[in-house]
Amino acid sequence: MKKLFYLFITLTVATMFFVGCSTDQTSVSPDFSANMAPIILPTGATVVSASLNIATYIGSDQPVDVHRVTSDWDEITVTWNSFGGAFDPIIEGTFIATAGWHAVDITDLFNDWANGSSANFGLLLDQVEMAYPRAIYYSREFYSNHAFLEVTYILDGIETTIQEEVIADTYIWETAPDQNGGTSEKLYTGWETAYDLEKQTLIKFEIVSSPQDGCTHTIGYWKNHAGFGPQADEVTQYLPIMLGSFEVVDATMAVDVLKMKTYGKHKNGITKLMAQFLATKLSIADGASDADIANEISDADNFLSTYDWTDCKSLSKSEQKDVLILKTTFDDYNNGYIGPGHCDEYDEDNDYSDGSDSDDNDCDNDDDSDDHHKKKHDKKDKDHKNKHDNDDDDHDGNEGGC
Questions:
Q1: What are the angstrom distances between the C-alpha of 367 and each of 363, 371, 374?
Q2: Distance (Å, whole) CA 402 – CA 37
Q3: pLDDT (tens digit, 9 = 90+) per residue, 280-333?
């Protein structure tokens, strides 16, 4: 009876240890409410940190090295022989495989993946010393505690942390070099006994970098792709966005800015600037290059850090004209007349204005409105600022902008 009692106590303590303790103070438990999508790093984002997070089911108390894999592999077909030791000997990070969650810093490698300097074929986990028993981890075939990637980045002064669950994992075994472990609920590193050969673990995540050129959408597109209609929500993933000191925190707020009714009215120059500027920043977050309007973005952020829509009528004529120039520049960028160009997947059913705003460029244009816009911009003067000093070039027909 005593033996049963001691066994119960031992199992209880072990369970409490695994659930409540971590050997790495920086490790965190995953929150997979919507984390099956790939890691998307917006253009202009600065990565603060990136970490591999993995839960050890049974620990070995041995150091495990993390390496960059150098050749592609398939979860359900890869074996020890087919993998062929295709990993970089450089160690990206190390953890001690005790029971619990572990976080391994792979920031430099993640940046290499994101900028394309290294192909993303995943990671290899390799026990350093021949010691036993081996460590056991949860694979993605198990119902919980899957490995995940956590990335923190800064964009427009806002720090954002995102997580992505592993998309492929398996183990390979030198003892059975043609055996595949892709359907197993467990992963391994190390040796089981002195007579065993090594097991290693392969893990892969999906990472998408926003393209450096990309294309743009107008305010109408973003307004109608914010999750409040038949179209998918393409806005929320890029929020929050700062317009100077004004923070757009969710899709509802974004639509209010784009509709130009809540934060001033559509005849207010600063209100119009905010709408066009938000559409511009959404396109940039979506992958469009900002190289041609970098100065205007800086000017607009500086202006909107001091003024908002309530200040429009207090501006001097010169300041109102500057607002108009910025607004029209972003309008042209969103329509594709400057910058990387407008996205060409226009579909009347998906890219439309709700007709509530009088701004001619409130939506991605159909053929008629596109011709109309081109006529307005078919001028020989290549000085964009001088061109838009004319009343005829203010698409809202509002000279002072307020």
A1: 12, 6, 10
A2: 43
A3: 999 998 888 888 999 999 999 999 999 999 999 999 999 999 999 999 999 999
CA distance 264 to 274: 10
Peptide bond into 38 cis (omega under 30): no
List the structure tokens of 266. 């559509």
Q: 23 and 95 in contact (C-beta within 8 Å)?
A: yes
For residues 102 and 54, the answer to whether their CB atoms sit within 8 Å is: yes
Tokens of 277: 């500027």
Q: What is the pLDDT of residues 48-96, one digit of tens each?
A: 999 999 999 999 999 999 999 999 999 999 999 999 999 999 999 999 9
Q: Is the pTM of this model over 0.70?
A: no
State residue 38 phi and psi, 5-degree precision: -65, 155
In 3-state terms, what secondary structure has residue 117? coil
| Res 21: pLDDT | 36
Please state, in angstroms and rounded to a whole number, the distance separating the CA atoms of residues 331 and 3. 78
Token readout for 209 is 């970098």
Residue written as tokens 């980045």?
153
User: In which element (H, E) is residue 318 found?
Assistant: helix 317-335
What type of residue is 131?
Answer: A
Alpha carbons 244 and 37: distance in angstroms, whole number: 30
254, 248 contact by CB (below 8 A): yes
pLDDT band at residue 347 under the 50/70/90 scheme: very low
Query: For the chain, percent helix, then strand, then coil, each to nearest 5?
Result: 30, 25, 45
DSSP state of 120: -
Look at residue 259 and give its three-state secondary structure: helix
Helix H or strand E segment including 257: helix 251-259
DSSP 169-223: EEEEESSSTT---TT-SEEEEB-SSTT---EEEEEE--EEEPPSS--B--HHHHH
Q: Which residues does 74 contact at the CB level (< 8 Å), separation at least 6?
A: 168, 182
- Mean pLDDT on 19-33: 42
Map out the domains of the chain as residue ranges: 21-209, 219-393
The 3-class SS string of 351-401 reads: CCCCCCCCCCCCCCCCHHHHHHHHHHHCCCCCCHHHHCCCHHHCCCCCCCC
Q: Among 138, 112, 116, 132, which residue's Cα sits nearest to residue 53? A: 138
Say if residue 340 is preceded by a cis peptide, omega within 30 of 0.
Answer: no
